[in-house]
Design brief:
42% of the residues lie in helices and 18% in strands. The chain is of the alpha/beta class.
Length: 231
Amino acid sequence: MALKNVVITGAGGNLGKVVVEKFLKSGFRVIAILSPGKTLSNNITGELHSYNVDLTREEDVNALTDTLIEKHGNLDIAIFLAGGFAPGNLSETSDEVLKKMYSRNFETAYFIARNIHQHMLNQDSGGRIVLIGSKPSLNPNEAKSSVAYALSKSLLFRFAEILNAEGQSKGVVTSVVVPGTIDTPVNREAMPHANFSTWVSTEDIAYAIHYLCTEKGASLHDPVLKMYGIR
């Protein structure tokens, strides 16, 4: 049986590396999308293909997706993890920060997801797409301290609804995974006095994403999966 292709953006990040390894160990062909200049560890085993692109540049993303389709054929699964965070309340959130967060959290998903979604509509096997939301984008009390980040991430939920409206008759399903604070070295350094045991692990998120993309998760439609950690 031919390997299924899974496209993963943000593959060089703390979460991305774990998701890449999860799918490789499960027998998928992983197409890892990295920021310009980034590479993945040589220690990763499995069929891995890496590409570098600035996901905020529409023309570059269009060229990349054409290349992926030409080289790999069907794109069965696409997981969009690229993004960024900026703190700031209303009074601190400038036009510059808004645009930066919009670009890093929405455009990095929109340009490539739009292209791959159109490709999936035209393949007999349909497809699965996973976007990464955020708890502040659903929780106003948390959004107060990260306004630009929360607003930019909130667009992904409506984007998923639009993708599902177009994809439902073709077997193309888009899910949104919504983590709370992710247990990463960067977050531990930024919040050294927090209770790390209540955070959600990258391994748990990778497991949930993988489940959404397997036959066992095929009965789920338009899901928004909240992973807020232990309360």
